[in-house]
Structures are given as C-alpha cells and as structure tokens.
Specification:
Blueprint (H helix, E strand, L loop, with lengths): L11 H9 L4 H10 L2 E2 H7 L5 H13 L3 E5 L7 E5 L1 H4 L2 H12 L13 H11 L2 H4 L3 E8 L2 E8 L2 E6 L7 E5 L2 H6 L5 H6 L3 E5 L2 H9 L3
Parallel strand pairs: 4-7
Antiparallel strand pairs: 1-3, 2-3, 4-5, 5-6, 7-8
Length: about 210
C-alpha cells in the first residue's frame, strides 16, 4: 500500500480503508458482487471512470487479495475479474453501506445514471428476508432500458439481469421506485398517478413493497 494512502494507525478500519477506501473501489466491488466481469464490462458499468483509474484500482485490489484474474477456456480466452473469497466477505459491508446511503438519495441528480448492476445490488440491499418467508413469486422490474428478474422463493432472493420467463408481476418505474420502497407513496398512489405501471396482479405490488424496503 502506498505510503501516502496509509493512515498510520494499527486499526482494522484504517487498514480496510487503505484497501477499499480509494475512489471507485467499492463500486468496482459492487459490480463484481453481481458477477465476474471482463475489463470492458466493468468500463461499461462504470462509464465515468477514467481508464487509468480502473486499471489502477484493479491492480490494487488484486495485490490486496480482493480481486483475482482468471482466463476463460478457449476459444474465448478472455481475462475475467472476479472477487476472491476474501473479497466476497465485503458483501454485507457493501449492502449495509448501500442501505444507509439509500436514505439520503432523494431525487436523482441531473447527471446520475442507473446501471443493471446498481439496480440488482439495490434490490439485494433492500430485500427483507423476514417478510419473504412463505412467498414464492417472480417479479420483472423495468427501469428505462434496464430489465431485472427478481425471483423470491420462501425467504431467498435471486436477482439477475434480463426478463423473467413467467413473471407474476411486471413493474415499470423510473426514479419513483425509490419513493415507493421508502414508503413515501403507497402502491395505490403510485399506480394512480402513473409513476409506476404494473402488468399482472396489482396486489403483488403491495407484497413487493413489504419485501423490498428502504
């Protein structure tokens, strides 16, 4: 670790910040928590990161044992970045920080974007296992061009990019989804004012808000 990044304290928090506290590091980890990715995939998911910074962060995270490179079998042969076991231990940290930060989101800033990885991690962050026990349902969430399949199965969540083959409810929403999950509007209000549209049983939107909540 470069000396200028050291805090000079023999402390687990200080050491952790030396590893993942640099700008963009936790967002790289967020995207790798969704799935292993090629360098170009990471660039696509973090379009505003300078290429030299992405390369530097990956090198630093690899040196710290958080990220590793693997080469896919031929004929592909691409280099893919994935989290090590040590790196995956950051998941509860990322989820807790995301949940804490979501309370300060407000309305999106003019230059802010959504990505498939950020939506998937947002749903994993807001998922309330205790409210999902005994529930089996397939949701398809559409936010602009992003489509995410959310499968809830008796307290467990599977969240992946792409459409659900047989959705019980399709939800289309923009930034209004945050207000819905924060209970600032009710499902009925959101549907009535057109900020959220659904296809399927509207009652399942009430369960959606119970299971995913900020």
């Amino acid at each position: 670790m470069a000396q200028q990044r050291a805090y000079g304290q023999f402390c687990g928090l200080a050491r952790g910040l030396e590893i993942v506290g640099e700008r963009w590091a936790l967002l790289i980890i967020r995207d790798l928590l969704v799935a292993p990715r090629r360098y170009t995939d990471l660039r696509r998911g973090l379009p505003r990161i300078p290429t030299n910074i992405l390369a530097a962060r990956l090198k630093e995270l690899e040196a710290a044992g958080v990220v590793e490179r693997i080469v896919l079998p031929r004929p592909d042969g691409s280099v893919v970045y994935r989290l090590t076991r040590y790196g995956t231990e950051l998941e509860p940290v990322v989820i807790a920080l995301s949940r804490w930060g979501a309370r300060a989101l407000g309305e999106p800033r003019e230059d802010e974007i959504l990505t498939p990885a950020s939506v998937i991690m947002a749903m994993r962050t807001t998922f309330r296992e205790e409210h999902a026990r005994g529930l089996t349902v397939d949701y398809e969430l559409r936010t602009g061009e992003i489509v995410v399949h959310l499968r809830v199965d008796d307290g467990a969540l599977t969240a992946v990019e792409g459409a659900s083959p047989e959705p019980d409810l399709v939800i289309e929403a923009g930034p209004a989804i945050r207000a819905l999950l924060a209970r600032e509007v009710t499902p009925k209000q959101a549907i009535a004012d057109g900020t959220v549209t659904v296809t399927g049983d509207p009652g399942l939107l009430d369960r959606f808000v119970e299971v995913f909540a900020i």
